[in-house]
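input
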Amino acid sequence: MKKKLLTLLMGTALVMGLAACGGGNNDKGTDQGTNKGTDTATSEEGAKIFDQKCSGCHGGDLTGGMGPNLTKVGSKYSKDDILNIIKNGKGQMPANVVTGDDANKVADWLAAKK
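output
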């Protein structure tokens, strides 16, 4: 009986902890007519995709490694330029490491790095 109670309490604590940490953003798009919440969500998605697909060469902190430093890439290239590099590759970077809407999200996120 004690084991079942402990399991129930731990499960409840886990659910409550997850709800508090990542419990969703209910104010998406409510910032005085702007779509700020969605932009933040897209930015977070771009960062996550970068971390999964690009950080191996460019570093998790964007400082480079095998690939170039991208900490201020948005001051050098526009979003369209970055998207073009993602799609077509450049130097040692192969083409289409990230594709489709994911490529657009990463380009958007990187273009903000100034």
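quick obs: Residues 2-22 form the longest helix (21 residues).
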